[in-house]
Amino acid sequence: MSSDAEATGRTENTDRTGKADRIRELMATEGDAVAENTRGFNEGRYESTGRLDDYEALKSEARDIKEDAIARLPELIERVTETVEANGGTVYLADDAADANRYVTELAAEERDADRLIKSKSMTSEEIEVNEALEAEGVEVVETDLGEWVLQLADEAPSHIVAPAIHKSREAIAELFAERFDPDDPPETAEELTMFARERLGELVEDADVGMTGANFIAADSGTMLLVTSEGNARKTVTATDTHVAVAGVEKLVPTVEDFAPFVELIGRSGTGQDVTSYISTLTPPVDSPVPDFERDADPLADGSGDDRDFHLVLIDNGRLAMREDEELKETLYCIRCSACSNACGNFQSVGGHAFGGETYSGGIATGWEAGIEGLDVAAEFNDLCTGCSRCVPACPVEIDIPWINTVVRDRVNRGDVDPGQTDWLFEELVPDEEPAGLDLSTRLVGNYETLAKWGSRTAPVANRLANVGPLRAVAERVAGIDRRRELPGFASEPLVDWFEARGGAAVSPADATREAVLYPDTATNYADVDRGKAAVRALEALGVHVRIPDLPGSGRPPLSQGMVSTAKAAAEDAYGGLAPHVDAGRDVVVIEPSDLAMFRSEYEKFLPERSAARLADASYDVMEYVFGLLENGGDPAGLRAPAAGTGPVASGTRIAYHPHCQARTIGVGEHATAVMERLGYDVRVSDTECCGMAGSFGYKTDYYELSMDVGEPLREQFGETDRTVVAAGTSCTEQLDALLGSAPMHPIELIAPRE
Ligand code: SF4
């Protein structure tokens, strides 16, 4: 290794240690509070959206409105300028944060000579750091949202886009109030703390000169704003003073007031799990309610008049109009900042937004916001924390493909981060990827898992013995960031494709078959977990299927997970090229590894012509989904293994603990295994943990090993003491459950397949 490379290696090691230390610290200090609150929000979301008959239709409606609004954004900016000005207000389009802050500070400090500005919660105002700008001009800023006020007192940044102080426990807030105010009778309960804050904030509001809000939505046709809050403080902020400044990103514009409707239904349910958020305010500023005179204790509104109210709408660009021109980042602008993607995310639940976030925004979609507003460097700091598990996708009320945005940004970061001095010519010769030289070695290694697996299989069992030898693991950890605490999976010396050919191919002839299927030899099944492939062949043949296992390339999932988009695209084209003749011939494509099926059903639409992607998606099935379909269509279950026929671990009974794969849940195939097992007589308990925490290669990385285990902890709690036989479908889940429980689960197809 050259001295340059050695230096790079040391820097990477130092970075890794620092990142792992930070994550460990946040898991210890903030993780419990974040986990408890976000999981509570998720339960509320499931219950609340479950009561909606038209949830999916509402999401599509919301999506259509945002797509239309962003497409027409320049026109909507012009329109809202006309309507607000006709209403008596002023509109200012700020190019960036400095421009917005200059306008606001001139207004508050110079024109209004304000001593105090009160604010209701606004992430956009956090983004431009308007508090600091105002305070530099001598204007005191008071946050009136309880969570924001707590953070202002603690001098901390928000850790969640809707519940900014989600990381603070009640005890921590009580301690903070006691320290800051030294009250005679320190508040302790949630109610006491809220009342304490309310009294102090009430006094501060009475002496304010200017009120600042954000806006959840603004109707261009009327200048009407929709404000959604939990505490009603936005209403006080708007009405308590004669000057109202609303600071909002340009993406908040929608064409009409009618367009608010689906968002009112969705925003509270998606974020905090409430059917309707506590306060939904629609106002067309300047509002005409009288300006209160708080000197008149008895009746502050007695002589008030709304005639002199002043309103300023500051629309912020700050990178958004450029994002609108960026085909990949544009989708970020559809975000309504509900926080569902944060709450749904296993990693976020463990560390919160102080690790999983950038300068302002946190959670899965933060990568898009921070890349567009701050730049790739900021996005790169936390982008790795999105594992692509896809649990956020069905939770997003505007159907944003959040993992794809993270993948695209990772690809850009990879390409911007290449180290031209890195000596990886040897690796370049060995791996057939499409990436530039100098790519981070860990990224390149994992992204080329298919090549590694081929070599591992060819050289097994020697490769398997060497893979877990201490000194080699130490090198792998230092050079490639593969954590030595993880046991590396072994490779099979006879791949599934070779085994199938050696046995003479299909046991059921096409003439006798009920269906013809191609069993896709995904990389993990073909080179490592061959037994589940063999079990799939036995099960399908027991149901009268003519099975083929052609030698096909990998799906591109490993490079995609590393942000190696060009390599993943090339793999997708190759895999489709191999599968297309079978699809043309009317054969079904049966897939064992859920993350590969998710590629065929979801991600390939990004890589293949629309018709090709749709054909493959329609022809592809999860192996348990396929068995379910065969049984539903008259297949005889007698050939499958019912519990009474089992011996060995399965003989212990009918009782099964099943963990479905996260991506299988997202694409709607997680439940078929349960249905099949129950039909055969098994008593199945399904895990309520949505993500095991392993997420492909994520859990192998030194930076994230402990986080991965923490995310998996609820699964260990649920299945750790079980006397049930544990089954799981995904390779990652299998490895994580092995680490968590001390024994590897089997795939459900291995449970139900007839014995060899
Ligand atoms: S990306 Fe979707 S789920 Fe996440 S905050 Fe935005 S709207 Fe909500």
Automatic annotation (TrEMBL):
Pfam families per UniProt: CCG, Fer4_8, LUD_dom
Q: Which GO terms describe its biological process?
A: lactate metabolic process
Q: Which GO MF terms does the UniProt record name?
A: 4 iron, 4 sulfur cluster binding; oxidoreductase activity
Q: Which UniProt keywords apply?
A: 4Fe-4S, Iron, Iron-sulfur, Metal-binding
* Composition-biased stretches (Basic and acidic residues): 7-27
Q: Where is the 4Fe-4S ferredoxin-type domain?
A: 376-405
Task: Read off the Gene3D superfamilies from this record.
Answer: 3.30.70.20, NagB/RpiA/CoA transferase-like
Residues of the region (Disordered) are 1-49
Recorded protein name is 4Fe-4S binding protein
Q: Which PROSITE patterns match?
A: 4FE4S_FER_1 (PS00198), 4FE4S_FER_2 (PS51379)
